[in-house]
Amino acid sequence: MRRSDPGTEFCVDIVVKGRKTEVPERFRKHVAEKLKLEKIQKLDGKVISLDVEVSKEHNPRQADRCDRVEITLHSRGPVIRAEAAAADPYAALDLATGKLEARLRKQHEKRHNRRGNGRLSAAEVVEVVPDVAQLNANGQTAAEQAAAEAVPTTRIGTLEVQGDGPLVVREKNHVAAPMTLDQALYEMELVGHDFYLFVDSDTKEPSVVYRRHAYDYGVIHLRTDPFAGSEAGGAGGALGG
Q: Are 155 and 147 in contact (CB under 8 A)?
């Protein structure tokens, strides 16, 4: 759907889709009403489109978080993403919209008040980054660890399946230009994740930046070694350090 606010030339494509679930027309209309384009325009005048993806978890043990809504904002600047889960899609949409507006507001303030190269200090992360989280030794947030302990886990080959299944493997492919470490940190803050995979512009090799304990940052660089054996350990587990 294409929506514009009355009295303005601001027009944005809003795409609502379901992943393995049907999205009723009533909910699609509610999305268009919930996403306040006038407010979004004030915070980011370069926005092009908004993708809203709705998915449903059929595990009865997760009934209070069975509906998930993910909002992705595409603009001529960095992509901004927010997601939330709740007992129904309308509540999940409210939570995700609130997170999106908070991240847009932080980006807007940072763009106008940026000092130096824009990199946050460890002390500023808690105040500036929404939903900042610490990772345990297994690379999990506290919420993820609690969920893993509450739901039984079954191993199938090299994969682990939580709950009764079915086995679902989600794969995403992204196209990205090489960037500096500072830019990767900035992008990670915008999407609200605890790690960010990027191609280092200096080495042209894949790297991962992530949050460590006490709100510091860490970075893993991969170096191609043609003489390395096929059973090399790799970098698995390094995020917990």
A: no
Task: Report whether 72 contacts 62 (CB < 8 A).
Answer: no
CA–CA distance, 199 with 197 (Å, rounded to integer):
7
> What separation in angstroms does the CA of 70 have from each of 38, 77, 182, 196, 204?
21, 19, 26, 18, 31
CB 75, CB 44: distance < 8 Å: yes
User: Measuring CA to CA, how many Å separate 18 from each of 33, 56, 91, 95?
Assistant: 18, 9, 16, 18
Angle at Cα 138 formed by Cα 137 and Cα 144, nearest 5°? 115
- CA–CA separation, 34 vs 47, rounded Å? 16
Q: What pTM did the predictor assign? A: 0.48
**188-to-24, 98, 128, 184 alpha-carbon distances in Å:** 33, 18, 13, 6
144-157 confidence digits (pLDDT tens): 666 666 656 666 65
DSSP class of residue 208 equals: E
Burial of residue 102 (number of CB atoms within 10 Å: 0-12, 13-18, 19+): middle
Quick: pLDDT tens for 81-134: 889 999 899 999 999 998 988 888 888 787 766 554 556 555 555 555 555 555
All residues at 6 or more sequence positions from 117 whose CB lies less than 8 Å from its CB, including other chains: 182
